[in-house]
Amino acid sequence: MSEVLEKIWQHQQISRVELVEHTGLTSGTITNLTHELIERNVIREFEAISGNVGRRRVMLGFDPGQYRIIGLDIGRATVEIVVVDLHGNVLRTIERDMSDKAGPDDYFAVIDPLLSELKNDIEKAGYTILGLGAGVPGPMDYGAGKLLDPPNFPGWQGYPLRSVLEEKFSLVTMIEDDARTSAMAERWYGLGRTIQDLVFITMGIGIGGGVVSGGKIVRGTNGLCGQVGHMTIVIDGNMCDCGNRGCWETVGSIPGILSRWPGGGSMDRFAEAVRAGDPDAVRCMEDTLGYLETALINVFNLYDPELVVLGGRLYPYLADYMAPVQRHLRSRLYAFAKDRLRIEPSTFGTSQSAVGAAALVFGFLLSEPVRLLSLAEA
Ligand SMILES: [Zn+2]
Q1: Sign (positive/negative) of CA torsion 224, 225, 228, 231?
Q2: H-only helix segments in 146-278
């Protein structure tokens, strides 16, 4: 059933005959499986007119009429909540600013009323909520559903977020590192719909990464897989919070850039100085792009992704300078692979992690539809 759902998702609309061709299952099996999925309101039939002869064909696609998924992002400065349907449309977005001293109690004082009301509204309107996904600053213990030791996020060390959310809202709950939720937003709802191997890099106060390989999130032994911000870029460079020296994050994140620019101040001021041709600012930007280029080469050679997606609050400041970075990159990659290189900006902007949190639940639906539907309806 999972294979059939994934094919329908990839194609958006597909006929039963095409499903037989693409899956290798018998037409009897396809008839039974699609019948059950239609009964359960996961997919629906609709008529499409195909070809120049104008023949009507019965197609299958996801049914946005019954289920909703809630995505929550708990960030260092904001809380964001989105509601998504089974087409991946973002139907609602709620955002609140948080102070940087806020701990779990302060966050839940904001989240509790918002989520309770939202859940009520959705259910009153007759929809079923499939689940709640949450993105959090990493690193985290995925198995235990706990935050581990997120830097600059006081009060959250060891916090059992998944069980707290489950208890409060009685929904199927999944939590994940926010760089990985961001990757899953692309995987299911963005550029990666038909892509199995992608790396998402988020650049802001820190630099994080989410690796999707064979369509699945890769976590590693300690949940550290994809921590691209901590690859060594400057040998004998400055100390990093992680214990290493010269991590990309120490020079390539927003604080890293501003610490190297003698002009001081904000990213906006820095960007202005670069545009005005200030020599210190230009040199600092050139170095920043050089670090990015080196990091991207390492990412390509380590993970061999089909697609690298760049996001986070820093990216808009670098976007105008990406053409030369891409050009240099191509000259430094394996010749046979260089033309397959694809680097794109993220699809969902500041909502990336919240949308990706919802995508976690969507991924669960596609891999274990019967189990998730019975949990959601329980
Ligand atoms: Zn580090």
Answers
A1: positive
A2: 161-169, 178-184, 248-252, 254-260, 267-275
What domains lie within the chain, and their CATH numbers?
2-62 (1.10.10.10), 67-183+352-377 (3.30.420.40), 191-346 (3.30.420.40)
Q: Residue 245 Cα, ligand 1 centroid: separation in angstroms?
A: 7
- The alpha carbons of the chain give a radius of gyration, in whole angstroms, of 22
For helices 27-39 and 16-23, the axis angle rounded to 10 degrees is 120
How many angstroms does the Cα of residue 235 sit away from the middle of ligand 1? Answer: 12
pTM: 0.92
- Distance, in Å, from the CA atom of 271 to the CA atom of 102, rounded to the nearest integer, reads 30
Cα 227 to ligand 1 centre (Å): 9
Amino acid identity of 58?
V
Is the bond preceding 139 in cis, omega lying within 30 degrees of 0?
yes
pLDDT tens by residue, 129-157? 999 999 999 888 988 999 988 877 889 99
